[in-house]
From TrEMBL, chains A, B:
Gene3D superfamilies: 1.10.238.260, 3.30.160.270, Aldolase class I (3.20.20.70)
InterPro entries: 2-isopropylmalate_synth_dimer, AIPM/Hcit_synth_CS, Aldolase_TIM, Citramal_synthase, LeuA/HCS_post-cat, LeuA_allosteric_dom_sf, PYR_CT
Recorded catalytic activity of this chain's protein: pyruvate + acetyl-CoA + H2O = (3R)-citramalate + CoA + H(+)
Species of the source: Desulfonatronospira thiodismutans ASO3-1
Key words, A-Z: Amino-acid biosynthesis, Branched-chain amino acid biosynthesis, Isoleucine biosynthesis, Transferase
This protein's name: Citramalate synthase
Protein origin, superkingdom: Bacteria
Entry EC no(s): 2.3.3.21
Entry similarity comment: Belongs to the alpha-IPM synthase/homocitrate synthase family.
Annotated metabolic or biological route of this protein: Amino-acid biosynthesis; L-isoleucine biosynthesis; 2-oxobutanoate from pyruvate: step 1/3
GO biological process: isoleucine biosynthetic process; L-leucine biosynthetic process
Pfam families: HCS_D2 (PF22617), HMGL-like (PF00682), LeuA_dimer (PF08502)
Ranges of residues in domain Pyruvate carboxyltransferase: 4-267
Length: 541, 541
């Protein structure tokens, strides 16, 4: 089976989307997830253009990726510079990636209006830039910006740009439909003409979705011989987005017989899609093909009964192949086998008829229907599992709390104060603290009360705090400030990081749940470590 | 220019979507809007299957449609009946539409497993059903269910089904990709084989989006000679949806040279899309091609300056052709020329050396460095602009507020109460309200205090509430629950939607800012509308 290179640009083109903003840490988390999925190339950013992207390339060097190559992206050198003194090319080299993508103009209009130079000079710039980078990097891709529009405007010039990039030593010529306006018919015709003119060229495709044909255009390009597909997770990208890798990869693998990901990794697709949406803090698009919540959801009576007899009657693929699942609406089951699998990860060998499993299953179903998201908040899930199995101590009880927010025009900043009443064993502690905002005040008061009993809590700190507001019901209707709120809190101590979750109509209450879980998890984890150490010592005796 | 028939099935297939529920009244409203747009055929429902659909066909007869033909949809007769005594065919005739679409099985597996009959009997049922309806209706379409899957499984049988429908007198044979799994390459190959086998047939295409290729598949079918395209507004439909007419129509008209809608009607597309989303009560998909809010939004600095010089550089069509518009997003870099451009949109002709511009620029830089995101919150920006220019009234002053959150173990839900003290002119109002959570309580108290003075505030409601927690500084380090919080609030009244922003260390305070902006914007907008009306009336005198 022929291998197609998958090139992800979520961290670069994806961040051009109107509502996507990623910090350096977000980018690192996504890159590591894409590495686990087995994406071949991860375009990390444009180091010559902004400091966030430069920091990413430094930061990512602290992680050993198993599969992916990180790629830095930049433009051909400035018309007024040479490759040797161009700061943009210099930034590419300083990013120390093994692969570089360099983009150049191929549309005559842009050369004239944007670069304000001649066609000859543009060809020279392409050749010089590619040639300069060639000996300095293992893999080098040339991104032909606006190629399809350029071809339609001035075929000879567009082809000449590709030719010069090849002569300079580019490994792959990536044909970009930058404006996303190319129809499938035009795209096929143009690719065939490129192939006739440059039969030795290895081609890539980079499509945008302005005509809602980016996925089809990418598949057609591969069918005609392209060896690399560029796109983003969930199709995030400027305007209408980039070609959606979550749709392209499964069609290439399941329908067209190509290999994209390492063996057995396709089933990670749905969880990867959700992870990226969570980190980008964008609501999942339920109708999204392959990985969306509705992608294999059956509503109509005829369909439901047919699908139960034979899923193929109304499902184009087996949902599990991409890590998704069939949903018969109104009976959404949190899978029993999922629980067994997870429990095994935490060291419990359970039987599927174990009453604990059935208990946990019913608890989980109830909690997930309320909006708890355990796929992300694994620490909360681990606590739930251990509590259900009776293996987690009750470290403390929060009997009551109160948060007071006030602001008058005399003071610029509002005043936040929290009081808590906690019980540890038979001892009660009633205390108060102020903070920057109500959640911070509650956090401070809780720690103040508990550190007396559990000094190790001083080792932990909060790393991230995420809030997601979502519809109360499944009908997609929001109810404004009375919507349900999910809070995810990421905490860390010197040797671990963990995420906990809370859900409520009330953001303070949701935060309280996630904070309590976070403190409990720290104490639970410390106990587990002590236990492991004790067992090891006993064995050595 | 060749005419392509546009066939809308939003009212039938569209309602199979997980979150779409339409009453008879909703369906009538949508049908009339589609008529205004100039859709050729409006499939109203399956009268044989449910009473809502039957009522629709009665109700719609009370309206004279200018352009559209209403179509009723149903299956071939039951295996145990004849056309004459089949209640489903009878319901089709009783719907009294001038056009009927009848669907039949063309996949051998379905004939065996679902109909539990022989292939010969199925061919007979198709011929008899079509033949029975032929003299009773003006136009008759045969919907070949699962045609592409059927063709791949048993080509001879699938083609025989089409042949019998033609012999029975069907005007158009609609090839359905019911499961949405057909790749563009397969689709083209199969259509060409159908044409070779049935050269006289007039073909239609009905695609589903499970592979994210429904739009491309529809365009390719037309390119090969299909004369009718079936789809839905916004692509609503079961699982991943149907082929999206909002993307197909503009590509056919603007790129492929076909006629679909009556002259000059294409510019109604964006408003039609929004109308249907409103009636279906589904949040607009901002990244939707052609008609989405982000479809012509430009963020990156390079793109913005290029687009200003020549929009074609990053826009595949002129947005106004489909009734949409270009949006220049105010991204992190608040440049002087960006502000001038935005100000012009709001009706201000400013000079770049105007002290107001310099003042606004410094304010914006400061606010954006704090985390205010005006690219999204355009209403807040418009208020800021007008305030800086001294053109927005101070509608009210919030002198002070207090929010109290409390929870004891006795009660399951926490209690939220807000008090506010507002001043309008010389009058002060001091009131209190409870709510589901602190922000909801504050919202309720504010409205309670202000509606006395401004009754139109009762027209507005909150549509969406988004929270983003982010690092205080650019170093990428979070500081947990003391992180900065950005709240975006989307509000709406009967004729507009607007987004406002608030930023603070404190989520309540950030929400307060966004809520205040939202209320102010409503009042400001109402004043502007009154002013415009007054000027128009004065001009008429």
């Amino acid at each position: 089976m022929s291998k197609i290179q998958i090139y992800d640009t979520t961290l670069r083109d994806g961040t051009q989307a109107e509502d996507v903003h990623l910090s350096t840490e977000d980018k690192v988390r996504i890159a590591r997830k894409l590495d686990t999925l087995g994406i071949d190339y991860i375009e990390g950013g444009w180091p010559g253009s902004n400091p966030t992207d430069q920091r990413f390339f430094q930061e990512i060097q602290n992680y050993a990726l198993n599969h992916s190559r990180v790629v830095s992206f930049g433009s051909t050198h400035s018309t007024k510079k040479t490759p040797e003194n161009d700061p943009n090319l210099d930034a590419l080299i300083k990013s120390r990636t093994k692969a570089i993508t360099i983009f150049g103009k191929t549309w005559d209009v842009h050369v004239k209006d944007a670069l304000r130079t001649t066609q000859e000079r543009n060809l020279e710039i392409i050749y010089n830039s590619v040639g300069f980078l060639r000996p300095r990097v293992e893999e080098l891709f040339f991104d032909a910006e606006h190629f399809f529009d350029g071809f339609k405007a001035n075929k000879e010039f567009a082809l000449a740009c590709l030719g010069r990039a090849m002569e300079g030593g580019a490994d792959i010529l990536v044909l970009c439909d930058t404006n996303g306006g190319t129809t499938p018919m035009e795209l096929c015709r143009i690719i065939q003409e490129v192939q006739a003119s440059l039969p030795e060229a290895r081609l890539g495709i980079h499509a945008h979705n302005d005509s809602e044909t980016a996925v089809a255009n990418s598949l057609l390009a591969v069918d005609l011989g392209a060896v690399q597909v560029q796109g983003t997770i969930n199709g995030y990208g400027e305007r209408c987005g980039n070609a959606n890798l979550c749709s392209i990869i499964p069609s290439l693998e399941l329908k067209m017989g190509y290999t994209c990901l390492p063996e057995n990794n396709l089933s990670l697709l749905t969880s990867t899609s959700h992870f990226v949406a969570e980190v980008a803090n964008i609501g999942a698009f339920h109708r999204q093909p392959f990985v969306g919540k509705s992608a294999f959801a059956h509503k109509g009576g005829v369909h439901v009964s047919a699908v139960r007899k034979n899923p193929r009657t109304y499902e184009h693929i087996v949902p599990e192949e991409v890590g998704n699942k069939q949903r018969i609406l109104l009976s959404d089951l949190a899978g029993q086998s999922n629980i067994l699998f997870k429990a095994r990860q935490y060291g419990f060998q359970l039987d599927k008829d174990d009453p604990f499993v059935l208990d946990l299953l019913s608890k989980l179903k109830d909690l997930e229907s309320q909006g708890y998201e355990y796929a992300v908040a694994e620490a909360s899930f681990e606590l739930l599992l251990n509590r259900t199995l009776g293996r987690a101590r009750k470290y403390f009880t929060l009997d009551s709390y109160r948060v007071l927010e006030s602001k008058s025009d005399k003071k610029d900043q509002p005043f936040s104060e929290a009081t808590v009443m906690v019980r540890v064993g038979g001892l009660q502690e009633h205390t108060a603290a102020t903070g920057k905002g109500p959640v911070n005040a509650l956090d401070s008061a809780l720690r103040k009360a508990l550190e007396k009993f559990y000094p190790t809590l001083a080792e932990m700190h909060l790393v991230d705090f995420k809030v997601r507001v979502f519809a109360i019901n499944d009908s997609g209707t929001y109810s404004g400030t009375a919507s349900r709120v999910r809070v995810l809190i990421e905490s860390a101590d010197h040797n671990a990081q963990w995420v906990t979750v809370g859900v409520s109509f009330n953001i303070i209450e949701a935060s309280r749940q996630a904070l309590e879980d976070s403190l409990n998890y720290k104490l639970f984890k410390d106990d587990q470590a002590k236990l492991t150490k004790a067992i090891k010592e006993a064995e050595q005796v």
